[in-house]
Amino acid sequence: MTEDESTSVSPSRRALLGWGGAGLVVGAAAAGGAAALAASRPADDETGSGAVPFHGTHQAGIATPVQGRLHFAAFDVTTEDRAAFVQLLKDWTRAAARMTQGRTVGEGAYGGIPEAPPDDTGEALGLEPSQLTLTVGFGASLFTKFGLDGRRPDALADLPKFVGDQLNPARGGGDLCVQACADDPQVAVHAIRNLARIGFGKVAIRWSQLGFGKTSSTTPDAQTPRNLFGFKDGTSNISGTDTGALDQHVWASGKDGAPWMAGGSYLVARRIRMNIETWDRTPLGEQEDVFGRDKKVGAPAGKTTERATPFLKGMKPTAHVRLAHPDSNGGIRILRRGYSFTDGTDGLGRLDAGLFFLAYQRDPRKGFVPLQRELSRHDALNEYIQHVGSALFAIPPGVRDTHDWWGRTLFDT
To answer: How far is residue 288's CA from residue 1's CA, in Å, rounded to a whole number?
Structure first.
């Protein structure tokens, strides 16, 4: 990431306002530089070093090609001042626009007055943008905190308790979230760290999750990733270029009951613990029956290629592929962006590892909820997994231009 000398403000003003105030000054200049940098680094750069455009109808990080690393954070809002929170969203937007284009926050990590902390923490200096995307969402509790219950979308209804759930409240919920995806883990961590720093005194991290090894893809022409059980899953995931499927299954419409959400989506985040040690002692044939796939190439049971049309009735009734397939669920489709995780051990010598499941959809009541209800009751995979964390967020539409900001359609009324 690079410093930007053209956006500096006077030392006295910086000392008085810090990044929150300086953001009002640097926003316009940052936008011009960000656009130029985005043009010079195409989003499909195969090295993973390019910049993904920040502005658009939809937020980046949903239909965007899935990057290799994740840092996800849920926040509690600690201020009761609506104006202060709105200003934070504006400051976050300006910072995010800069970081996604490989630029530092505010005046940067060095060169300022010694008596004040720098605006940027500096650990991403010299690193490429690495396809960084930042996606923000609002939890149901946020609407109550700011007297917006009347604007809470019906689709943001609390998720029901599913069979087998072992949810830890410390790993779920939140007033808002930020999903940082990048091909360099340090770039993703830097982004969350700096947004949390900007939000000090207004928001606090409630829980967070690091992820690696994407477990699904929005680019079907690429190889389908494997999860920690060694299987390919999500072969039929919605493509990021399939505008018809995205409009039908992912993007919210103004006709859905919450006009301010038009162009947005809904995110279900689930932390799924995988019983690695038990799975590793399971015979190969049983593993393949559980998933309904060949382990070598990922082909559906009875087929020879991964993308062959599955013969669902030829699989065991409890096979994961059979139960999760759209043909078994009235055509339900969700866009998945999950990641594997390992968080040390559980104190009993077992890996605390699994899948951090992220799914975007137009309405969770018609997407994730009926699908998970079926899986939780019948999926053979349940013997080897537990859902231990859960959250649901409304993902507002994208930031359309340099004058726009995250959440404007909700708060600017």
So the answer is: 45
